[in-house]
Each structure stands twice: as C-alpha cells, then as structure tokens.
UniProtKB/TrEMBL annotation, chain A:
<keyword id="KW-1015">Disulfide bond</keyword>
<dbReference type="InterPro" id="IPR036249">
    <property type="entry name" value="Thioredoxin-like_sf"/>
</dbReference>
<dbReference type="InterPro" id="IPR013766">
    <property type="entry name" value="Thioredoxin_domain"/>
</dbReference>
<keyword id="KW-0676">Redox-active center</keyword>
<comment type="similarity">
    <text>Belongs to the thioredoxin family. DsbE subfamily.</text>
</comment>
<dbReference type="GO" id="GO:0017004">
    <property type="term" value="P:cytochrome complex assembly"/>
</dbReference>
<feature type="domain" description="Thioredoxin">
    <location>
        <begin position="33"/>
        <end position="171"/>
    </location>
</feature>
<dbReference type="GO" id="GO:0005886">
    <property type="term" value="C:plasma membrane"/>
</dbReference>
<dbReference type="GO" id="GO:0015036">
    <property type="term" value="F:disulfide oxidoreductase activity"/>
</dbReference>
Automatic annotation (TrEMBL), chain B:
<keyword id="KW-0479">Metal-binding</keyword>
<keyword id="KW-0349">Heme</keyword>
<dbReference type="Pfam" id="PF03918">
    <property type="entry name" value="CcmH"/>
</dbReference>
<dbReference type="GO" id="GO:0046872">
    <property type="term" value="F:metal ion binding"/>
</dbReference>
<keyword id="KW-0201">Cytochrome c-type biogenesis</keyword>
<keyword id="KW-0812">Transmembrane</keyword>
<feature type="transmembrane region" description="Helical">
    <location>
        <begin position="102"/>
        <end position="123"/>
    </location>
</feature>
<dbReference type="GO" id="GO:0017004">
    <property type="term" value="P:cytochrome complex assembly"/>
</dbReference>
<dbReference type="InterPro" id="IPR005616">
    <property type="entry name" value="CcmH/CycL/Ccl2/NrfF_N"/>
</dbReference>
Length: 177, 154
C-alpha cells in the first residue's frame, strides 16, 4: 500500500532521465541523409584562378575531405590551423568550398593564414552546396575512393576528433580498393 | 486621426514585406504552390521557423531553389523530394510515417489508451469499495477526534 506513494516519484524520475538524455543531444546536429550515398558531383570555378575549375570527379580513386568554409564563419578561422596540420603533417587531401563569400576576402584569408587545400571551389550562390545538404559552416565530408560519402562532421575539426575518429576511419578507407 | 495612422501602417507593412524577396510567377497556381511549400518546409538554421518566416541565408537559398523548381513546372512532391534527399526528413514539419517515426505518430494514442485504462480501473475499484462498517464506539471516537481538530483550528 505504501508503494503507491512512490508512483509519482517514479514517474518524476523517468521524466528526469528522459530530459537529461535530451539535454546531451545537440538539436543542430541533424543527421545527414547523404552518409553512404554517392557524393554529389560539383564543378566550381577555382577561387585562386577563376579561369580554372575545381571538379569533384578529379578526386576519384582517392580518399579525401571536402571542407565547406567561409571567411564569415568564426569556427572556420578556429579550425584553419588544424586543417593546415592535417594537410602538411598527416598528408590529408582536402578540397575546400568557399561558400557565400567574397573572393577578395577569401584570398586575403588564405594568403595570411596559409592554404591547406589542394584546391578551393568558389561557391558564392550555393550552387554546389545545396546538393550536399550543407546548412552551416564549417562542415566536413569524408569521401572514399569510389566517390561515396562515408562520414560527415558539422562544426570544426579538432585534434581530438581526428585522434578518436577520423584518423582510423581514413586509414580504413585507404585500405579499401 | 486616420490620416495620421494610414501612412504609418502602410510603412510598417512595407517594412515587413521587405524582409522576404519577391518572386514573379507566370502562373498564379504556381505562386500558390510556392507559398504552400515555403510554409511547410522547415529551415535548418533557425530550427523552429519555416522557410517563409526565416530570413536566414539558407532559407533564402532554399526559397530560391523552390521558386526555380516550381517555375520550371516541378510538382510539390518533386520539390519536397529534392529537399528531403539533401536535408533529410528534418525539413518536413510533418514527418512521414516510417518505422523510425512510428512511436512519434502512435505514441500519443498509446499514452491516451493507458490513461483511459487507468481511469476505468480506478472508477471500477472505487465502485466496488464500500465504506467499512463501524461499531458505535468507533463512531464516537471518530467524532471525538474530529472535534479535537476543530478546537485546535479555532
């Protein structure tokens, strides 16, 4: 009979547990529908040389990162040094897409802070970006040798993320034929 | 008085319209469909707004794409499929019924059924329970106790 008085407490505790779980989830972390899908192809003018083009098709047969950035995005500034480390010391192939940006500002940014990208596509009007379902920057995709998206991260790439997740995944994809 | 308010009201309505870009449609039916679509699609940046309400750049891009597709004669389903294949079910305010969303759709009905069940069992139980028979001494004692309480209150 006494246990009846514990029922509201029990319900309360269940609600607390659910709310606590809810607090740990980031509502901005929308799961990508593109994981394990074929990466959308893009052809964009080269940021550094408008005469040239940057094509996703040129990366076929390689494991590479697509990094979406813009000089208007503070997290991208924060992430930049680590991208340089990845490109230089870890030999990671990174293609950038400069999104909704001004060419002059983006060029100055790369000149001052260094350029970790093999190539940077310039996409001021979200022509290519829309196909990738990008809704914020920075956003990074990992594409395998066959041109499939295998991993995606919203927000800056950090050394912790690299150590704990990305490095092993890239090594595994490199081993795939 | 009216002469004073009217220009002000007009100015306010223009300012409100200025937040959203105006698209020209060759067909009023397309315009109506465009309005329905941007009303039903959800912006991913300001997560509790639809495309029509949001002035985020992403919402602008998505509105432009919706406009282009509608103007080229795409059906509502085609536009929705286009958005869902890129941004996921998240862009829909009305999620589709799937195994992963089944609980979302059925959950409220389950909770309602549980509530009705508890209520019915509660009512039945109360109907069966009778006030226990008391002996005259018990009644006298109960009255005494109740009166004691009254005295204290006063």
């Amino acid at each position: 009979m006494k246990a009846r008085f514990l029922i509201p407490l029990g319900i309360f505790l269940v609600v607390v547990v659910f709310l606590a779980i809810g607090l740990t989830k980031d509502p901005r972390d929308v799961p990508s529908v593109l994981i394990n899908e074929k990466a959308p192809e893009f052809v964009l003018p080269d940021l550094l040389d408008p005469e040239k083009q940057v094509r996703s098709a040129d990366m076929r047969g390689r494991v590479w990162l697509l990094n979406v950035w813009g000089t208007w995005c503070p997290e991208c500034w924060r992430e930049h040094d680590f991208l340089k480390y990845l490109a230089k010391s870890e030999g990671v192939a990174i293609i950038g897409i400069d999104w909704r940006d001004e060419r002059g500002e983006a060029l100055a940014f790369l000149r001052n802070k260094g350029n970790p990208f093999l190539a940077v596509g310039f996409d001021p009007d979200s022509q290519a970006i829309m196909d990738w379902g990008v809704y914020g920057a920075p956003e990074t995709f990992l594409i395998d040798k066959k041109g499939f998206i295998r991993w995606k991260h919203t927000g800056a790439i950090t050394s912790q993320l690299w150590r704990e997740e990305l490095k092993a995944l890239m090594q595994r994809l490199e081993a795939e034929s | 008085m009216r002469r004073f308010w009217l220009p002000l009201l007009l100015a306010v309505s223009f300012a409100a319209q200025g937040a959203i870009e105006a698209y020209r449609f060759d067909d009023p039916e397309k315009e109506a469909r465009y309005k329905v679509l941007i009303d039903e699609l959800r912006c991913l940046v300001c997560q509790n707004q639809n495309l029509a309400d949001s002035n985020a750049e992403l919402a602008q891009d998505m509105r432009r794409k919706t406009y282009e597709m509608v103007q080229q004669g795409a059906s509502n389903e085609e536009v929705v499929t286009f958005m869902v294949s890129r941004y996921g079910d998240f862009v829909l305010y009305r999620p589709p019924l799937r195994s992963s969303t089944a609980l979302l759709w059925v959950g409220p009905f389950i909770i309602f059924a549980i509530g009705v069940g508890v209520l019915i069992s509660f009512i039945r139980k109360r109907g069966r329970e009778r006030a226990p028979e008391l002996s005259p001494e018990q009644i006298a004692r109960a009255e005494q106790l109740l009166n004691q309480g009254k005295d204290r209150d006063q």
